[in-house]
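A further point concerns the way the authors explain their paired sequence and structure data. Each protein is reduced to its one-letter sequence and a matching series of backbone shape codes. An entry of this sort, consisting of the sequence and the corresponding backbone structure tokens, reads as follows:
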Amino acid sequence: MLKTLLDIALRHLLGRRRQTLTTITGVAVSTMVLITTISLTRGLLDSFVETIVNVAPHITIKGEKTNSVPVDILTRQGSSAVVLVEDNIRKQEREEVLNYRQILELFASSLYRDEIRAVSPYVESQVMAVKGNRNEPVLLKGVDIQKEDLISGIGRKLQSGNLAAFEKTSNALLIGRTVARDMKLTLNDEVIIIPASGKSRQCKVAGIFFTGVNAVDNTIVGSLKLGQIIEGLPSNKVTGIALKIRDPFDNALLSEELQRVTGYRSLTWQDQNASVLSLFTRIGYIVFSLVAFVGVVSGFGVANILVTTVFEKSRDIAIMKSFGFSALQLVGMFVLEGFLVGLAGALAGGVLAVGSINIFAVIPVENSQGPLTKTGFSMSQNPLYFIYVIGVTVFISTVSAILPSAKAAKLEPIKVLRDSNL
């Protein structure tokens, strides 16, 4: 019986080839667009996480103390308790990590040797970079370049210059590509660095790097000693410590422990990029909700062709019921037609989506994708997205066939045949 119903369903669909093809094409195009959109948004998120994990520190120890002592502590509570505070205006303390070498020794001890892979102390300072009549405010990061290379792999990100020249050159700088382009800087150019306080210093471009992370490529890197001089810090102080750990995705507990033992604020890469990750999450919800809406539109197309089929084939349906086909079998036949149309359109859309994803991925155009700059689009080819969209599309197309199939099941054979002979 199932083979008979399948044969009749195929005859109905092939009997109206133009309308069937139009409906399948609509379902295919909507499926392709949805899969491609999901692939783009999820690919951008995956690319961002991968790039951040490879370039940025997994945990950062900031120069913000967490064990500060309160100004006043109330020993008793009650409606009659009164506290008077006089001359409590204090100068805001600069964020700095004191005696950072002791903390580095702690991280290198057997307690954390298995968890922490690399550490790099740094000094950050807002400065003005000047070359001729061009000037730009930038963030200067003073680092121990060998330690920093273990964190960010900056040596592999150099488009010109090398780390050996950087280490040998006095007051050498590695310039982020965005800064280099804005200021028209090239290798061996002279740049004047003007700090917020203190005297300016003349530096030399020893390399230009490109990481793909816009925030990083908009900075300049100098030696740790240069950073301490510009920021006015003694040799035993830095503004932070960057860490690379064994598992960058399971770092919350370790970060909390390091904050407790050091007394300084500890932030994971997820904490520092929380706003971007939250934005990606919201975009993901919006995109996935679009799947349902577009699926409903596709369902209307399937329902339209089946309603027309019921109207035009009402005499054939009456004859089928006269030959003993039950109402449930007729419902199953039209639901099968909706399933076939949805499946054909969804599978065709999946094939088209593979092609569109590959095309977007190889487009040789450099573009800024949110916080990243990449050549081509970051596309994800996770098969789960294909299964999800195709499954939802087929399900909605099948469900949309219930209404016209119920109408077909209610037809009275005698009335239909009598009216058709008039």
